[in-house]
Design goal:
By secondary structure, this protein is mostly helical. The protein has one domain: Winged helix-like DNA-binding domain superfamily/Winged helix DNA-binding domain (Arc Repressor Mutant, subunit A, Orthogonal Bundle), CATH 1.10.10.10. 58% of the residues lie in helices and 10% in strands. The protein has a two-stranded antiparallel ribbon. The chain is globular.
């Protein structure tokens, strides 16, 4: 559990927004769920985050214990990022936001989102969250094993 200090109020919503409410942090968490793991992977996302902002948000998320990283054994300069258990627990928020957008926003979604919606069409939100969370946990184990040598 992460100790919070200097928050605006003791409201839980306000505090989560203080931690995650900038325009990039949840997108980085989303990208990690999409199995993007490196700085270059994050830079290649369609939202086009700048490298200095990305560096800041990765440090912030690591400081909040939302993410962690390990060095690639073949190239120690490359960090492989992954979600901690606390970061994985953000998935229901991301999932809910996706479905809220689909329900209330008249827009053309990114092809990957369209595919994700189609794949999950006949599932409950709980089923989607459970399946995607378990898939990510398996992916994280694989990443850690491969990086351990």
């Amino acid at each position: 559990m992460h100790k919070v200090s200097n928050n605006r109020s003791s409201c839980p919503v306000s505090t989560v927004l203080d931690l995650m409410g900038d325009r990039w942090s949840l997108l980085i968490v989303r990208d990690l769920f999409m199995q993007r793991t490196t700085f270059s992977d994050f830079l290649a996302a369609p939202e086009k985050i700048s490298s200095n902002i990305l560096t800041d948000r990765l440090q912030k998320l690591k400081g909040y214990q939302i993410i962690d990283y390990t060095h690639d054994p073949k190239n120690r300069k490359i960090k492989k990022y992954f979600l901690t258990d606390m970061g994985i627990d953000l998935y229901p928020i991301i999932c809910e936001m996706s479905y809220w957008s689909k329900k209330h926003l008249d827009m053309e979604f990114y092809p990957l989102s369209v595919t994700w919606f189609a794949e999950n069409e006949n599932k409950t939100l709980d089923q989607i969250i459970e399946n995607d969370t378990q898939s990510y946990i398996a992916f994280r184990k694989k990443i850690k094993r491969s990086l351990a040598g």
